[in-house]
Amino acid sequence: MNHSSWRTIRLMRHLKPNWPTSMLGYTDASLDDTSLEQWTQHLPQHMPRQSLVSSPLQRCLRMAELMSQKYHWPLQTLTSLQEMDFGRFDGMPFSDLAPHWELLERFWQDPFQNPLPEAESLEQFQQRVLGAWQQLIDLSRDHDLFVVCHGGVIRNILAHLLHADWRQGDLYQRFTIDYGSISEIRIWHQASGPVFQLRRIAVPYADYRYES
After folding, report:
1. pTM of the model
2. Which InterPro entries match (predicted)?
3. For residue 57, how far is the Cα from the chain centroid?
4. What gap in Å lies between CA 141 and CA 127, rounded to an integer?
5. Angle, nearest 10°, between helix axes 122-139 and 151-161?
6. Cα 198 from Cα 11, distance rounded (Å)
7. Strand (E) or helix (H) holding 71
8. What are the b/e assignments for 82-103, b being 16+ CB within 10 Å?
9. pLDDT in tens, 60-77
10. d(C-alpha 155, C-alpha 37), whole Å
């Protein structure tokens, strides 16, 4: 490999899940079939060679497997790319959470100080995602990467790259990461360490143009 070279990591949030509106974390929901069909119709016939990495949850993995089959890209899963575990409330429809609304409000305002019952803490989630991010950096030394993961994971990576305070609850609300959107990060691998550049953030998949 050259002494100095660059790669691209594309982070795609999964499509709309077939699940009631909820705090959907570790719960392994399937994908909405209509959303999946619309997405597959927008996939280019040909795409630049890259490697695929996916969360093992089926709302991500199903998309990654389809791309792997279509483009003959190698695919691997990273458990550390799973969405945050919201504990007792994970996957519960918001309509069933009315008795706990005060607790949820405190969590949304200050998740670092107000973890949810039996849930992964914000610090645990942040450390897990940073570990996954380091793995992605290492994997990108030889190939561009296409990563299918979750909104919380992408927000955490973007916050890290922007040196933002990940403890602030409103930080995660400022990043609108829609279903199926793609964020693009360019990495220069140098002997002194990687250099990052945010190229595009949360572009709808129908508007995204792939560049080698």
Report:
1. 0.94
2. His_Pase_superF_clade-1 (IPR013078), His_PPase_superfam (IPR029033), PGM_Phosphatase (IPR050275)
3. 12
4. 22
5. 80
6. 11
7. helix 58-71
8. bbbbbbebbbbeeeeeeeeeee
9. 999 999 999 999 999 999
10. 26
